[in-house]
Amino acid sequence: MKGWIGKVLRVDLTKGEWKTEELDKDMASKFIGGRGLGSKILFDEIDPKVDPFSPNNKLIMATGPLTGTSASAAGRYMVITKSPLTGTIACSNSGGHFGAELKFAGFDLIIFEGKAKEPVYLYVEDGKVEPRDAKAIWGKTTHETTDQILSETDMDARVSCIGPAGEKLVKYACIINDKHRAAGRSGVGAVMGSKNLKAVAVKGSGSVTIADKEAFRKATLDGFQKIKANPVTSEGLPAYGTCVLVNIINTSGIFPTRNFQQSVFEGAEKISGETLADDILVRNRACFACPIACGRVTKVKNPKYEYFGEGPEYESDWSMGGCCGVDNLDAIGKANYLCDVLGFDPISAGVTIACAMELFEKGILSTKEIGRSLNFGDADAMLEMVRAIGYREGFGDALAEGSYRLAEKYGHPEFSMTVKKQEFPAYDGRGAQGMGLQYATSNRGACHVRGYMTSPEILGSPQKLDPFETEEKAGWLKIFQDLTAVVDSAGICLFNTFALGGPEILEYLKAATGIQMSLDELMKTGERIWNLERLFNFKAGLTGKDDRLPDRLLKEPVSSGPAKGRVVELAKMLPEYYELRGWDKEGQPTKARLKELGLV
Amino acid sequence: MKGWIGKVLRVDLTKGEWKTEELDKDMASKFIGGRGLGSKILFDEIDPKVDPFSPNNKLIMATGPLTGTSASAAGRYMVITKSPLTGTIACSNSGGHFGAELKFAGFDLIIFEGKAKEPVYLYVEDGKVEPRDAKAIWGKTTHETTDQILSETDMDARVSCIGPAGEKLVKYACIINDKHRAAGRSGVGAVMGSKNLKAVAVKGSGSVTIADKEAFRKATLDGFQKIKANPVTSEGLPAYGTCVLVNIINTSGIFPTRNFQQSVFEGAEKISGETLADDILVRNRACFACPIACGRVTKVKNPKYEYFGEGPEYESDWSMGGCCGVDNLDAIGKANYLCDVLGFDPISAGVTIACAMELFEKGILSTKEIGRSLNFGDADAMLEMVRAIGYREGFGDALAEGSYRLAEKYGHPEFSMTVKKQEFPAYDGRGAQGMGLQYATSNRGACHVRGYMTSPEILGSPQKLDPFETEEKAGWLKIFQDLTAVVDSAGICLFNTFALGGPEILEYLKAATGIQMSLDELMKTGERIWNLERLFNFKAGLTGKDDRLPDRLLKEPVSSGPAKGRVVELAKMLPEYYELRGWDKEGQPTKARLKELGLV
Hints:
Shape of chain A: globular
Low-confidence stretches of chain A: none
Radius of gyration of chain A: 22 Å
Number of helices of chain A: 25
Oligomer: homodimer
Largest interface: A-B, 31 and 31 residues
Distance between the termini of chain A: 26 Å
Number of strands of chain A: 17
Largest sheet of chain A: 6 strands, mixed
């Protein structure tokens, strides 16, 4: 096989056994790799109704056929499992170097089954597989764990691991690789923790074989040139990182503030990418084969918030910042750093803390439950909660369950800013209708990278759409959702798509794998993956009723700013979306469409 | 200061003391950094007649103002000292990540003085300096040393170190950083060994401050776009690495074969970059901030030559290959790998072995001296000699002195292919007259990167010159020599110059440092550096008589191929060169020119 390594590692943690399987070539052609292929395997192999923390759930680490090649930003790997936060299928995507090294070590995917009796980590070197005792590193931070495993295995290995949060089953724990990159959302790190699997270290001297080297060289050169010609990928992201969005989104009036009570944050400038570059940026850092280098190495010297690490990204800058009413960039950076070393998703954490802040300010929670006051804008309170979440200490234990379970526990689920129990990211759908529809229909709950409608609605790429308009948004969203499924599955970074579209990605894939297909077929593949995820969720018990938004977004008009007076007009868009998808009025995929997609 | 960090670390190894000094801003403006600034400091601080292995020699590790910035391929650092191989000033230049990290750790330069009583290494973290005991790692390979120091200091540190060859004062020992990058030529590693300094490890959370961020962003974007538009930097080097040159240079009839007895190698195809890509290439690797990624990660599976590492580069591919008549790429790769881990220059090693092969085939050396037969084309004999050099074992002890001392010892210095006792690289000057002049006049002995005349004479960049023509070569060479001095001193990779010229590099420097200068002034700076090096050498005892070439290149016409019948017409070019340089007929810089350059 070309592009793919052609090998799958299956590890039975219960028995401490493993075997190598051939990658099913037909399945790989049909689902590409990464997200698509991992979802197909999960779909085929587990009961979607399984308890996510049961040994019967599986955890799949998957690369795509482009991962580890010289295609632009081709360093992605994904973790697919059933999410403990949402109960849906989960696929979390991460950059860095781990994914490429996994392929160099000889495998496209690792499927983890069962549960180890005691903490273990897995070391894979050039096809050799060795489970090792992890008792001594259980409880350690992700950074300590990485360093320790490197010194025990090989200095040039790459490590993905969980921190205390994953061990303690924080519902939105993540898996950290290369110290600063995260398979971040939906609690995949908690599933890893539930299996007593502390880490995976990989090292390899292999490489990825390319089907048509000349065509691939041409495609990658074309890709790099387009990335260097595009202002977002050649200027905005390198100069300011993802936080370049703070001012843009705030000015557009969709920067959710104080748990979505407002949509413009008066402190935005203080936490913007520009301020970050001036105040705490040390330098940029790039993932494997990435010409963009959006990663921010940052340093805070103020002893109260001192750290040296990476981030914050736009999402954590917002979740710990605007969403909590906090405009202290040093504190936000430190909070983000704690999420990295303790190992949990800063989006869900920040939005959950914001929910608790609203509950506190509304008198639903008091200092008695929380152990302290918890007002919007209180940076130190926010930071204290972040630390508490990582160790599930004190009120952190309740916060570790996520915003929905927290708000429900105290009788007010309406203050939980979630879809399918997963917290919103940093765009208010009321001022960007396509984003609203995207959130409602995402297969893993509220998510900005399941079809990034911000691109046309706010950034004007590939063309500018009126964000307040509902018409045609369903059609645009479908294309974005399907294309994103392709990009993720291929193993390249979604940020490519600011400069590259379907045709360029198709050229990458054709040249790397040798599989010839049309752009229509490629988009159909994305649609197949989308529908497969939907099928998993329906089998897990979800229905079209779960394509909903919190009442705040549907009924409470935005209070001020450019989006003033607006709500998400979901009812206008959802039926059209279902129809375009070939689903029935209840959102159930029709037999005909599933047959057409080769899913039945 | 902008661009520069503004701090110099001075370490007295004899006393085990160190201090931080302010970088002299005027001196930095006048000599840029790296090679220029380091040479100026060496010139001012040591007696050029000093024994290179005396504690009175100094070893300077120097970065440029662009090192560690996001300018293209801005990861260079240099080692400046008096060379034990040539007796001239030495400046060896290396990529990887060490140079950038040295600046992040807080210093532009480190000046090592004296000699430690016992083996030590230096650890520098964010301005904190700590000499540490290196007795336990003395004798270890560069890879073992790097791993051990990382585990003792910080996993994210960067290490430059010597191997057994440096400890044993192999005359052309190098300093290896980041395991696979080398300050390769002129024996700088032996000077480090003579000081009992095993390694330097650096780690920092600092960054490089840019004077005009907007202008710098523009300059770097322009640079990247030009690199991606140029076929050498966007296709040739990424696809085939520096070994892309094997077929080009061989077809041009200037691929020195069997110690320069021929100039076309019948086995070239077997050791070409194309064959390397097909047979042993695992993947590319890029240095800090490099969009070219010419580095070759390679792997040989044949148990006899098994290794997994980096290289060979064009130069080592040739020196262990064509120059020794060897067409076995696996063996060449392994030889290159041994040079990396044992720590010595594969160019000098290969050419010295080739010299010994000629002495053996001519009956001047026998199996008695060597301990075995040593014929051209014998890959295993070549490999055995390489290993022996690294440990100075058996005949390796004689080879460790370099080709000139070896040939002289056995009464036949005419078979030493050297200038100023340093071995030639992989271009026969007889078929490229400008290269011939370049070799004769280089300030560090035979060298391809002291004005890369191959670029116009063979590759046709920036315009094609007739390689056999002597006219105007002196003028071209002067420009190339001066521009190269600028590029090295700035801290960016010379490979930039396939796509970028003086104007682009000037933009980088102006934006980074804030120092305004014209292109003329920039070129004058390069000329200043060139003349300073010349002055050092003259004070060390060299004269214009040392601007010579071996008789083989001056009197033995090329035997076959495109350059058949040609010799280097040095006498035609040298007087013109001296005149253009403003030197007298004996090659001595005139007072007037030195005054004009601000050197007296």
